[in-house]
Specification:
Belongs to the aldehyde dehydrogenase family. This protein is an alpha/beta fold. It has 16 helices and 20 strands. The protein is 40% helix and 20% strand. Bound molecules: nicotinamide-adenine-dinucleotide.
Length: 484
């Protein structure tokens, strides 16, 4: 479990790589508990400078007047560089975040794919054609909305930042990335890559630091004209309230408590693999984690027994090893939070069917590991079934009929994702249309396409990312009239 080595501690302020004026934060390797890098953070003065640099760069005709294909060429180049450097970025992320190397490789591939997709889409985003209306000609044009703040969580570094930075830049904006305290290194690498790809320096800032200080300074800054936020619902609500005061558009990708549903006619082998991946990949630290499992009563006991058996076969350990399924959680404090939910489940009458603790001894004792945990016997209204745990904890619940299932699946404040396993495509379709979720997977889970809109309903968020509309979301429409 060797640390990958120390990394650039500099932040990026309007293209300038230099130490931040905020406090220096250690970046811990969650697999070892050791300091892997020291990262300086931004101060409020750095935020001011980054916003001013972004505004100036957006006014610069050299960027503003670039044709879409010229802007696309630079974004495509950024995608290429990410791809070329994918192994070293993946290793850096695994060290910073604890995700297994197979998953961090996929994150870098996703980030590179986002840049390539956005570059290609940008070349074919049409402006509306002018229309003659008697005494005048009218038309609409799209203009950059920014500067834009992109505030991201720690659980999918680089993919989250790319999902915001690529369309924001494509739309002609400066982008100011505020990565999470726990995993800033990949975002800093992304910033470097953007500069090397030839994006004008003033358009790129990466400002690590505390959420309430650096993040909130960005949100409140009068020069920031849109915030694209991914993170917890409580933070999202606060940012949304500030945005409302400023009359500023905001997109909020928030938390979840997503149901995975096994209908009685499902291919159970497929469903076991999907449910397991849905909750235990990324150690359950995924917004779309399928944390509530509903199984038809006729197959409930058999299915839960198979899930327990499969969970016990998962390989937990060194996230840099190729065969590892689960690495450590992000931090000791987060593990304590996950643990407290498992204790609560026992108090709420739940039966811990497997897991429910830390792996014992050996090489894992220094890292923040937690066993994959399956719990039955809880009331669907209990806190453990309602609140986002963001860890490797699955609650399994039986249901009897489709009406009850739909009501139970929808009975949380969240509405991010849902998985359905069934061989009956009509039933699966019917259910997919009735669940309150931004994304539904049928006979698969956690597949994400850069072209398909992503976002939540209810407390899971506001707005959509990805796809062609994801680029438009960083533009503002203007109507222009000519008297004839
Ligand atoms: P968080 O809300 O604590 O932090 C997210 C980001 O917001 C961090 O960069 C943080 O520093 C910043 N922040 C915190 N307070 C702020 C403030 N007052 N003003 C501005 N910025 C502030 O979330 P987290 O713990 O980093 O991430 C986990 C959460 O993110 C989970 O709830 C998870 O479901 C959610 N998430 C959602 C999606 C999605 O696409 N819907 C994806 C990944 C994670």
């Amino acid at each position: 479990m060797a640390d990958h080595g120390s990394t650039s501690a500099d932040i990026i302020v309007a293209g300038q790589q230099r130490p931040g004026r905020g406090p220096t934060l250690p970046s811990l390797n969650p697999a070892t508990g050791r300091v892997a890098a020291q990262v300086t953070t931004a101060s409020v003065e750095d935020v001011d400078e980054a916003v001013a640099g972004g505004e100036a760069a957006m006014r610069d005709p050299a960027w503003r007047d670039l044709l879409p294909h010229e802007r696309a060429r630079l974004l495509h180049r950024a995608g290429q560089l990410l791809q070329e450097e994918s192994e070293s970025i993946a290793r850096l992320q695994t060290q910073d975040n604890g995700k297994p190397i197979t998953e961090t490789r996929a994150l870098v591939a996703s980030a590179a794919g986002t840049f390539r997709y956005v570059a290609a889409a940008l070349e074919t985003l049409d402006e509306a054609l002018p229309t003659a209306r008697g005494p005048y000609l009218s038309m609409s044009v799209y203009e950059p909305i920014g500067p834009v703040a992109a505030i991201t969580p720690w659980n999918s570094p680089i993919a989250s930042e790319a999902q915001k930075a690529a369309p924001a830049l494509a739309a002609g904006n400066a982008v100011l990335i505020k990565p999470a305290e726990w995993s800033p290194l990949a975002a800093l690498r992304l910033g470097e890559v953007l500069l090397r790809a030839g994006i004008p320096p003033g358009l790129v800032s990466v400002l690590p630091g505390s959420g309430p200080v650096v993040g909130e300074a960005l949100v409140r800054h009068p020069g920031i004209r849109k915030v694209s936020f991914t993170g917890g619902t409580t933070t999202g609500r606060r940012i949304g309230a500030i945005a409302a005061e400023k009359m500023m558009p905001v997109s909020l990708e928030l938390g979840g408590k997503s149901p995975t549903i096994v209908l009685p006619d499902a291919d159970l082998d497929l469903a076991v693999r999907g449910v397991l991946f849905g909750i235990f990949s990324s150690q359950g630290q995924a917004c779309v984690a399928g944390s509530r499992l509903f199984v038809h009563r006729s197959v409930h006991d058999e299915f839960v027994a198979r899930i327990v058996e499969a969970a016990e076969r998962l390989v937990i350990g060194d996230p840099t090893a190729e065969g590892t399924h689960m690495g450590p959680l992000i931090s000791d404090s987060h593990r304590t939070k996950v643990e407290s939910y498992v204790h609560l489940a026992a108090d709420e009458g739940g039966r811990i069917r497997t897991g429910g603790g830390r792996p014992s001894g050996g090489a894992l004792s220094d890292g923040y590991y937690y066993l994959p945990t399956v719990i039955t016997g809880l009331d669907p209204a209990s806190r453990v079934c309602q609140e986002e745990i963001f860890g490797p904890v699955l609650v399994a619940l039986p249901y009897d009929d489709e009406a009850e299932l739909t009501a139970l699946a929808n009975a949380t404040p969240y509405g991010l994702a849902c998985g359905i396993w069934s061989r009956d495509y009509r039933r699966a379709w019917r259910l997919a249309r009735r669940v309150e979720a931004g994304t539904v997977w049928i006979n698969t889970y956690k597949q994400l396409s850069v072209a398909t809109p992503f976002g939540g309903v209810k407390d899971s968020g506001l707005g959509r990312e990805k796809g062609r509309e994801g680029i438009r979301a960083f533009m503002s429409q203007k109507g222009i009239y000519w008297g004839l």
